[in-house]
Amino acid sequence: MAEETIFSKIIRREIPADILYQDELVTAFRDIQPKAPTHILIIPNHLIPTVNDVKASDEKALGRMMTVAAKLADEAGIAEDGYRLIMNCNKHGGQEVFHIHMHLLGGDFLGPLVS
Ligand code: 5GP
Q1: CB distance 29 to ligand 1 below 6 Å
Q2: Interface ipTM above 0.95
């Protein structure tokens, strides 16, 4: 059984977070240390530690994460200019919280991902 992270407490509203969206599958909230003018994390409500642990039964929640990303980008007014969606996996990907999350970053020109 994978160990819960701070994100499970955010989902259950046991610790404060600026939650922008929540339904039966996913939760979205502002990153506590934003790396762009808009920096939102979108996560499944059930614990999946890394992208390596994703199963076919997770596809509904993963699809919802994408739908919610597009909706929140639109609501933030960054859809037309554009934005970046990132999921980090394990050490080389720079993953720090082991509850998968999609970063929605935008509100400025982000530059090339790799230069
Ligand atoms: P990772 O490096 O795992 O892809 O990204 C984890 C992200 O979670 C980081 O951008 C970090 O700022 C954010 N984060 C970590 N702890 C908290 C927290 O307690 N609340 C919020 N809102 N964001 C957090």
Answers
A1: yes
A2: yes
